[in-house]
Amino acid sequence: MSKVIKNGRIVNDDWQILTVAEGEEAAALDVPAGRVIVPLATWLARRDELAARGDVGVWFAGNEGPEALADDIGHVAVIAVSFPKFVDGRGYSTAALLRTRYGYTGQLIAFGEVLRDQFNYLTRCGFDTLQPREGRYTDAQLDAAVASLADFTEPYQASVLHPQPLFRRVARVGVKA
Amino acid sequence: MYRYDAYDQKLVDERVAQFRDQMRRHLAGELSDDEFRPVRLQNGLYIQRHAPMFRVSIPYGHLASRQLRKLAELARTYDKGYVHFTTRQNVQFNWSPLEVIPEMCAELAKVEMHSIQTSGNCIRNFTSDPFAGVAGDELIDPRPWAEILRQWATFHPEFAYLPRKFKIAVNGAKEDRAVIQVHDIGLDLKKNDAGEIGFRILVGGGLGRTPIIGREIESFIPWQHIITYCEAILRVYNRYGRRDNSFKARIKILVSALGIDEFRWQVREEWAHVKDGPNTLTVEEVHRVADFFEDPAYEALPADDVGYHHHIAEDLAFASWVKRNVRAHKKPGYASVVLSLKKPGVPPGDITSEQLELVADWADRFSFGEARVTHEQNLVFADVKKSELHTLWQLARKAGLATPNIGLLTDIICCPGGDFCSLANAKSIPIAAAIQERFDDLDYLHDVGDIEINISGCMNACGHHHVGHIGILGVDKNGEEWYQVTIGGSQGNNAAIGKVIGPSFARAEMPDVISELIETYIQERHEDELFIDTVRRIGLDPFKTRVYADRQPHRKVANV
Ligand code: HEM
Ligand code: SF4
């Protein structure tokens, strides 16, 4: 059970994220009962079995894109994206694509090196769940971090959270000097 | 000039609040050095050799007088009373203590300035033509487009953690003065046969350790689609640019690896999905922004001013300043003026608080309250009446800002180098100073004519050495500072990367080396031929021969 920020609130999430250990086959992974999130490779290898359960989600590694899951978007219980390093920004594009191109509307989790100073951008790209590394933040820090979701109230550009850019959202009247 | 509305202002204010809190957490030990790093970089804050370095954004180089005054005030209050203008039309403080930076940001926000995305692996400041709006060869004013794109890129949530930094330049004139060919994206405004505005788009140019001239990815993208097209480029780069080796992470490496055709195919594939989406520009938005860049209230003046011509005839020093530092203007009776920040003995691009305040006063008095920064690290007044040039010159001369050397050998582009920068292999400012000292005879300089010398203290190429007619690069050999020389580089429409002439030189040799290159040119040149043209015509050999004649070409270590 880990503390996550979901839709702007701190909650306990019971999704279990399975990883492949060194020397292990992704396809042969032991997938326990209950709410689990499996690596993309595991899902692709055992799609029918896992899809039938209804409580299995998929996670993407940094170098994996949503194309691979295009036909299964409606069959996964949840999607998660791994941030192997906090400076690795590929996951932002993965999220934006899942939301805007592949029509994914379910829960979308960012996990791994997910830092509070990135929460605002992560949510604008479509993540509704932010899962920092276990023990990374104290409860008080996490509380404070929730506020940072609103760091920028009216961003310029279109994103998942603001599907229209500022110039289409509001009437901007100049204040010409 | 663009002015903030309530939305622009709010975003900048929110950024100040965010950064204040991040700095507080960093100082309290909650935000480790590693985690603070990208945060501070995206606010322009580097940790340098002696002190932090703080870079402030000057979108496409435009500054209002009240902004100049604010820079002066900040330099006086928080720094040592001077600032440094950079080749990316930005401005840097060198000595401000770490903990005051959020306060400086708050002060900057009061005059519609910020340091957002001036560093870090994100989309950086947009650069453009310092003579935008007044140049005779302008086809389309690049500034509204640069501003529209600036807004799109600011706090873009998807592109803040790119594989590497990303620089975009916009040109709208026949002659490219924004060096678009060495940017990650170079945008060239043009009209198609139907008279519609659009962009020729270059991609994958860049300097640094792998200098590459950008490739054309599109010959014409209509203006409505410029954001979505850039977004497609950025998304392909964000997903597939290399992240395993920061030296190979720029988009130029991806474009070279895939080939321009495959890269174009991938971008178009992505673009097909986002084209015509919400980021498609509207006429209203373009007009809203373009309105800010309407011509100022020019007076109807005769093309020639009698007093001005009189002064030129009477006053040789004024005439020589006019010849080098005054440019033609599209309006009769007006001219553009370049204030030289290359006075011998002063580090190129540096200016004091007192000078900044004077420049602000003159901007108000002579040029509609505005000044501009050039990537050659000088300042420009775009709109000065010819009848007032002599007065302005007298004032500028008194302030040490009227060195008549624009485009001449002593108008050197130079990075901060080993005096300030922790990445440097060698110092660069003393090289510039030694060259300026050697060539102190103005008549000789005018005779040598247009020539660009660019100096970088390491292969990161902040001083654009690759595109200097003469490029000087600081290299490290067994812990000693050496200098490698290239010739034949150039910016502009015929951008080219210079070629190395041979083994590198000790610092003390550099003025001689430059003298010998110049003498070779003078000996070989045809009438009216510029240095770069002579190099192009006769190649490297005559220069090499001369420079290495008295030197042992293959020495390992020279006696300094
Ligand atoms: C003193 C602190 C500075 C540091 C630590 C620094 C760092 C760097 C680094 C690491 C690069 C290479 C990046 C790459 O190739 O991917 C670079 C490139 C560059 N920097 Fe700086 N820089 C500094 C100051 C400046 C200044 C003062 C200027 C302007 C005079 C400047 C302008 C540039 C430009 C134009 C490039 C070339 C960009 C390209 O490759 O397209 N930098 N800088
Ligand atoms: S070229 Fe090198 S030495 Fe000069 S400022 Fe850039 S990083 Fe520093």
Question: What does this protein look like?
Answer:
The complex is a heterodimer of chains A (177) and B (560). Chain A is 25% helix and 20% strand. Chain A is an alpha/beta fold and 177 residues long. Chain B is α+β, with helices and mostly antiparallel strands. Chain B is 36% helix and 17% strand. In chain B, the strands form 4 sheets. In chain B, strands 16, 17, 18, 19, 20 and 21 form a 6-stranded mixed β-sheet that branches. In chain B, a hairpin with a 5-residue loop joins strand 4 and strand 5 (91-93). Chain B is globular, with a radius of gyration of 23 Å. Chain A binds chain B through residues 65, 86-90, 92-93, 96, 101, 115, 117-118, 120-122, 124-125, 141, 148, 151-159, 163-168, 170, 172-177, and chain B through 1, 3-5, 7, 10-11, 14-15, 17-18, 21-22, 30-31, 35, 38-39, 121, 151-163, 227, 235, 238-239, 243, 273, 277-279, 281-282, 284-285, 288, 291-292.
Content-based structural category of chain B:
alpha+beta
Following the backbone from N to C, one meets helices and strands of chain A in this order, namely EEEEHHEEHEHEHH
As a whole number of angstroms, the C-alpha radius of gyration of chain A is 18 Å
What is the spatial order of strands in the main beta sheet of chain A? 2-1-8-7-6-5-4-3
Distance between the termini of chain B: 51 Å
Please give the largest β-sheet of chain B.
6 strands, mixed
What overall geometry of chain A do the principal axes of the alpha carbons give? globular
Weakly predicted, low-confidence segments of chain A? none
Biggest sheet layout of chain A: 8 strands, mixed
Topology, number of strands of chain A: 8
Cα-atom Rg of chain B, whole angstroms?
23 Å
- Give the total of beta strands of chain B: 21
**Largest Cβ-defined interface:** A-B, 42 and 48 residues
Distinct compounds present: protoporphyrin IX containing FE, iron/sulfur cluster
Overall pLDDT confidence of chain B:
94
Structural class of chain A: alpha/beta
> How much strand content do the residues of chain A show?
15-25%
State the end-to-end CA separation of chain A.
56 Å
Residue share in helices of chain B? 25-40%
> Unreliable stretches of chain B, pLDDT < 50, 5 or more residues?
553-560
Count of helix runs of chain A: 6
